[in-house]
Every structure is written in C-alpha cells, then in structure tokens.
Amino acid sequence: MPHPKEPSPWGHPRPTRLARGFVARLWGVTLVFNLVLFGLTVGALQASRMRFEQGTIVASESLLRSLAQNTAYALNGQDPLEPERVLAQQLRLLPELQGFLGKHGYFAVFDAGLRQIVRHPPSSRALEESSASFESPELQAMVVEGRMAGTFFTPVGTRQRWTHRMGVGAHERLFLVRRLEGSTFYLALGLSAQDYLHDWRLERDKALGLILLFLLASLVVSVLIHRAWRSQAAALRALRFEKELNQTIVRSAPLAIYTRDTQGRVTAWNPAAEKLFGWTEAQVLGRFLPSVPLATEYQDEDKTLRGRVLAGESIPDLEVQRQKATGELFDLSASLTPLRDDDGAISGFLTIAADVTARKRAERQVEFLAYRDVLTGLPNRSLLQDRFAQSIARAERHHYKVALLFLDLDHFKTINDSLGHATGDALLKEVARRLSECMREIDTISRQGGDEFLVVLSDLEGTEMISPVLVKIRERLQQPFLFDGHELSISSSIGVALYPDDGRDFETLLKKADTALYRAKDAGRNQARFFDEQMNAEAVDHLHLKNGLHRALSRGELELHYQPQFDLRTGCVVGVEALLRWRHPEEGLISPARFVPVAEDSGLIVPIGEWVIRQACAQAVAWRQAGLPPLLMAVNLSAVQFRRGEVQSVVAQALRDSGLAPELLELELTESILLHNTEQVLASVDQIKQLGVKLSIDDFGTGYSSLAYLKRFAVDKLKIDQSFVRDLAHDPDDAAIVRAIIQMAAGLGLRTIAEGVEDAEVLAALRRLGCDEAQGYHLARPLPAAEFAELVARLAATPYDLDAMSQA
Q1: What is the enclosing helix (H) or strand (E) of 430?
Q2: What are the beta bridge partners of residue 405?
Q3: DSSP track, 184-203
Q4: Spatial separation of the C-alpha atoms in residues 97 and 120, rounded to whole Å
Q5: E strand or H helix at 117, and its extent?
Q6: Strands 558-567 and 528-530
C-alpha cells in the first residue's frame, strides 16, 4: 500500500530546483576539469622543457669536452705565443659546430682574467651581448675556485632571465664552461634558448592550441547545455503547471475519476469517487475495488470489461450496475481508457464514472409513459401494436390465428358521474387486474382510454379457443366490486375480429372489432359479437352516410315532409309533424330510419335539429299567411340534441325569427331524455315550457317508463308508439296497453295521439278506446310542404268521414 507521503498520482515532483542544481554542478565540474587539464598540460610542458634542456646540456657537455680536448692538443703543438690564432683556426675546423650553435649560439675562449680571446662565429654585437657572461658571479666563482667545468643560465646584459619556464626570453642562454687542460684558457659554449628550445616551443604551441580549442568547445557545450537547461526548465514549468492544473481539475471534478493497475488494484481515487462509492482514498488505494456485486453475472461482466480495456480498447459510455459501500445497487455510467507507461506498455486503466440512477429512473418512467397506461400500468396502443406484430409473425410461421378483442364497460359513465372519478379510476384498475387474471402470458391487454380495452389473444389453434376466454371475462367482471362501502356490478360489451379471417393488419382488425362492439351494444350490451361481412357492409354504409351528412346541410340536400295529425272525433287536421328527409344527389330520397342514427352517433343531429326547428317554425308561419287554419307544429328532439345543444335558446330564437306563436309549437321528447340527468333535464324543460311551447312524450311505453316524470314534467300529450298500435285490432296485449295509456292520460289531463295507423281496423279500435288524435298512412302520408297545404285546404272544406274510414 502506498505511503501517505508519496507523490500524488495525479502529478509529478517539482523538477526545477533539481535541474538548476544539476546545471550548476555541471558548470563547476567543467571549470574544475578545465583547470586540472590546464595544470596537467603546464606540468607536462614544464617536464618536457626540462627534458629538452637536460638533453641539450648533455649533448653540449659532450661536444664541449671533445672540443676542449682537441683545442688543448692543438695548443700543445703550436707556438704558445700565438694562442688566439691557434684557437680561432681550431674552432673553424670543427664542422659540427655550425649546426649545433644555431642562429644565436657561439663558442668563445677566455683566460683566467675573464678576458675573451676568441669567439665563433665572430660578431661585434654578439661579443657585446656576451660580454656580460664573463661578469657573471657563477663564472667568476668557478674561475676563482679553479673548477674544470661548469653550467649555468644567464641572460645577456642587465635583464634578468624569465623565470616563468613556460616562456622563452629573447636573450636567455645556456652557458657551459670548461678549462683547457694544461693551460689557463677556458672554453665557453653559449646556446640561445630560442635555438635549443625551438622544437619544444612547437609542441608547447600545439598543446596550448589544443587547450584553447578544448576550452572554447567546453564553453560552447556549456552554453548549449545552459540553453537546453533553460528550455527544459521552461518545459518543466509548463509541465508542472499542466500537472497541477490536471490535479486540480481531477480533485475538483464532479465525476468520479480513479485508476487501477493491470491486476485491478486501485492506484488513484479522487474525492468525487469517495462521494460516489462511499469508500475513502485510504480504504481503497492498493486494494481491489469492491464495487462489483458478488453475483456471477456481474463478476463475469467486470472480468470481460477489464480484459477488453487491458487489450488496448477504449470503452466509452458504458452503463453497468455497481454497489456502494452500503451495499446499495445503483446505475453507473463509465468510460474506460487504458494507461500506458513510458515504453508504451499498458500499465493499467482510467475510469471516469457518474451516478445515472436518477436518469435511468427517469428514462424508465418516460419509457413507461410512452408504452404504458398511466392509470392501470397496462400497455398502451403503441406497445400493443408491437406485441400484435410479434403475434402475427408467429401466426404466419405456425399457421395460428390471432384474435383482437375490443372491450367496453357498460354504463361506466353513470358510475363515474355518480360516484366520482376517484371511484371510476379505482374501478378501472380493478378491471385491468381481473382482465389480466383471465389471460395467458402470451396475451396482451391494453387500455385505450376511458373505459375501452383491447386484448390480443395470440397463438390460437382455432376459433373455439376464444369463447372460453369471453365467458371467463364476463364472469370475472360481473363479480361485485367493493369501493368505499359501495358494492358495484359492471358488465362489458365485446367485439371480436380474427386474423387472418377478417384482416391482416392491426388497423383493419381494430376497425372490424369496433364494428362488432357496436353491434354488441345494439344487442343490449353485456354481449360479445364476432365480426361478419354484414357488419362490414353496415359499417361501410355508416361511414358513407356520415361523410354525406357533413355536406348535406350546407348543400341543401335536407328537406322536411309533413304528416297531418287528425282529431279522431271531428276528422279535422289539428296538427302536423315535421319529418326529416334526405334527398341524396345519387341515391335519391334516404329514409330517416337509415341516416338519423348515424347523425345521432356522429353528433351531426345537433346542427341538423336546429335547422329542423327553424325550418318548421318558418313553414308554419308561411302556411298561416297562405290562409291555412292554425295548426300545431310537432318537431322531434333527439336525446343527443337535448344533451349537447342549448335547445331552449334555439327554440326561442326560431320563434322570434319566424314570428310563430309559441302555443303552436310542440316539441316531442323521448323517455330516455327525461330519465337521465333528471335535475338538469327538469331545469331545461321548465325553461322550454316558460317559452309557451307544448311538450309531448314520443314513443311512450317503449322505454323505462316511470309515472313519476309525468308528474314532475309539465307534458301536454302522450304519443303511443306504433309498436303497440300496429297490431292493436288483433293482439289483446297491445289493446290492453293502449287502453291503459289512454285512460292514464285522461286521468292526468293529457291528450293522446297514436302513430302508425295503417288500416281501418286500427282506426276503429283507437276511436273505441277514446284516443284523441291519430296519424298514419291510412289517414295521410308525409307530404312536401306544397302538397300538404293543398291537402289541408281540401280537408278544411270537406273533412274526413272517420266512420266511413273506420269501416273500409
């Protein structure tokens, strides 16, 4: 484990002071080396000079000894009175003296009185220069002491000899003296240092030149080293700043940054890593990071990732699950990069990591919202289509069938409105749970919104596998639901479409399942219906009519026909019912039984109904202005029109625009209008009644009849439905119902009118039962406005003979 005082792994130690000391020591070593080299060179040159001088002395002594012997012998054989001539002749006869003396050397003979007798080569200047030699204390001491030979250095004249042995003075001389045997004469040899040290001077100059060259080279190298050091120092300062900056960034980074060696041991750990994982730097440095869960799949995954990055691969944006010091699992986003040493070999890897648990949770939530219903958690339509596509693919491979079920909860709106949306939502959740219990794992349930659900039944070997599922759904949903003390029962209507029988794509099957659902609702709800081609034809016709109705009103294709209503006591026309007709440009006159349900289903009945009221009121005024007697104009109101439109304001506006007296307008309401949202309907009916118009109950006896609403709502007339009237003469039950309605109305002070009078027997029966009014094909068909006016004008003059018509 690293020592706490070791350098930080994020930087390097400061090198400037070490580099500065190294350069200073290098300069010192170079200077000392140059001084030592100079000293050694001087010593070598000094020794070399001494060798040269010693050699010269030895050679000179030998030459001087030989010359002294020859000269002494010559003197002994000649006239002693002429020694100068003898000596001069003897010196000239020695040829070796010419090369030995050099340019500045000479031989001389002097006597005991230090007087020079002869010199070779002769030169007055030389003699003058050499005269000082005989005044030398060393020479005088030698003569006085009677020594035979002597050697000494002396300068010529009064200048002193150059004591620095590295140089050669211009007058420095080597002086050797030897006395001639058997005489008082001395033989002297004087050599100039310029001659006998000539070769030494050449060596000295070469050596000094080499030293100078080396010093210059050392200087140049030192300058280059200094410059390199300065450049290196600048680079090191930049590197140090960069390392300190990197260290600051790493230490202050919000991301966890840590390194590991090739074995997986942690080698660096920043504060963000401590905060992320929960382990301190001291706890993990030099140890294996215990963040990988112990499960085999996590360990294998980590081993694989480490192998990849140690093989040289960089792994960016890796998302894995890891654990903190507390053992808590979290989502980690990491980037792994291999680290290399100076030789390029991988020495470990760097990890930069962040906790993305919140983001992953948000992504999962977004994904859930994108593919799931928020309330129930069931798949939404997008996910259902994906599952459906998978089911279709399997069905094609294995020749299976796939069923698409469209399920709608019956009367869910009533529960939602009466008990509140919270109860409605709780009911939907429970329905979703119960539906899930009825399905296999390969099936898919989806909530489409509101109280609609889609179910995909996959891998069906035959259609017989569907019915048990439908039975199970019906039984499961019919079991009571308990919510806040309320026990609720609910049923469902289901439409079924099959792949590939009814279609090969989702949209086609969905449309056909919806069509089948529509038929199940028409059949009384709590039913299941399989799609067939008849439904498809009806659905196509429904769509065709719906699209046509959007244009019919603006193109003036709608018109009103009018059916007269007769007083069964007088036979006079006392009222008229406005009946809507659609004159299609291609199909001609379309029955209202065919297009009115489409208009109600699409909501187009609201603008159409408003047009009918305005048109009927205007037509009634037009007839009155044409001289017809005042007639009560009856107009049907749809339940959809009553719920969605503002009927009272529409009626009031139509009365104002047309000028029709309110008491001449009768609005026919169905029982279904009066039985739903009673308080709201009561308020609306009261407002309509305040306008002065009359109200009648249309198709009385066919709905959920309640005598209570007859008391609460101020209606004026009951209209007996033609289903009771049609077989009145032959069916005792119908006769009993009609009789009861007429008697009840009479007891309540209400008038009665029968519709659908098709023959004389029915007319006679109605008259016997005391019905007030009647209308039907036996009396008069619905007619266009002009034909209706002609009929009324004719009947005003000659009313119907109802007795005769009742016997026909």
Answers
A1: helix 421-437
A2: 455, 496
A3: S-EEEEEEEHHHHTHHHHHH
A4: 9
A5: strand 116-120
A6: unpaired
